[in-house]
Amino acid sequence: MIQSAAPEASVQEMLLSIEKELKESVGALKSDSHPALSEMVEYHFGWHDPGSQSGGKRVRPLLTLLCCAAAGGNWQEALPAAAAVELIHNFSLVHDDIEDRSASRRGRETLWHHWGIAQAINTGDAMFVLAFRTCDRLLANGLRAELVFEVLKHLTGACLQLTIGQHLDLRFEAEDQVTEEEYQAMINGKTSSLLAAACAIGALVAGVPESSVQAYNSFGRHLGLGFQMLDDILGIWGRPEETGKPVRDDLRMRKKSLPVLFGLRASPEFEAWWASGSRGEQELDEMAVVLERCGALTHSRDAVRSHTDLALARLSEAMPLQPAAEELRNLAQRLVSRKS
Questions:
Q1: What are the residues whose beta carbons fall under 8 Å from the beta carbon of 250, sequence distance 6 or more?
Q2: CATH number, residue 264
Q3: The total number of structural domains that make up the chain
Q4: How far apart are CA 69 and CA 156, in angstroms?
Q5: pLDDT tens digit string along 119-143?
Q6: Domain range spanning residue 23?
Q7: pTM of whole model > 0.90?
Q8: 208 to each of 70, 107, 116, 145, how far by Cα in Å?
Q9: What share of the chain is helix, strand, coil (3-state, %, to 5)?
Q10: How far apart are the two ends of the chain, measured CA to CA in Å?
């Protein structure tokens, strides 16, 4: 019989603990002489809007805690690592918003749009440093130094892959031809690498063998690929009330997403629309219709389903313990079944 990981906790308790850990990490910035820096971090994390989702859903740190519990560890010992993962994720968002010139995120002004580019870059850098400083608390939680070193290796590896993925994404804006293989490499770095690290780190803290760590890593990697591919679908066919973005936004911004790459390869009609540079609402609607008609939507949905199946298969190989195993499966299904 499968035994339960101890101590058990609800997802809600884990989320509350993540928020407490994050606030403790950010507390290192608090000072009477420079209160505005911590204020900018707190604004980005949504702490100025209690009860809202303006700061995000904390998916990545939750994966860290659930994977730790599923691997038989004490999830509370993994809290510093979970906070570090979320700090790195948010550092990347702050910099992405600058590079993409995004004025809003989750219905609010972005840091750079409100405080200026220079202050936003510096605030993102502060989050990055806090992530690694936060890992010091893993030692205080009793984790062996060599395991803390392994956690740091996963975090630094994910950070490098994040920058490579962002480099490719920016490069693609200026290129006429992008292959699906190049696209996969981009999202593997930009989206999937940190999800994979989040899951592997949870397993590392639990002290399981390397084969199990790799299974959790692969679970997170395929989950991240499916997550991003669904984002690509929502960027064209998603409802604004669900996505928080204008309808057809990815077509308007001319993002070389998975449906677009398929359409450019499979439909001369779509290729002509794309080459025309049209961005009027009627033209964007027509482009979406042409994409769906040529099979781009079906192709993208099939890809999401394929990576979801692979993620769940890898999770099963890790032989996760209940009840965290079921929570992981439920979370994975929610991430790749958001409404379009």
A1: 232, 235, 236, 257, 260
A2: 1.10.600.10
A3: 1
A4: 23
A5: 999 999 999 999 999 999 999 988 9
A6: 11-335
A7: yes
A8: 11, 41, 45, 16
A9: 75, 0, 25
A10: 39
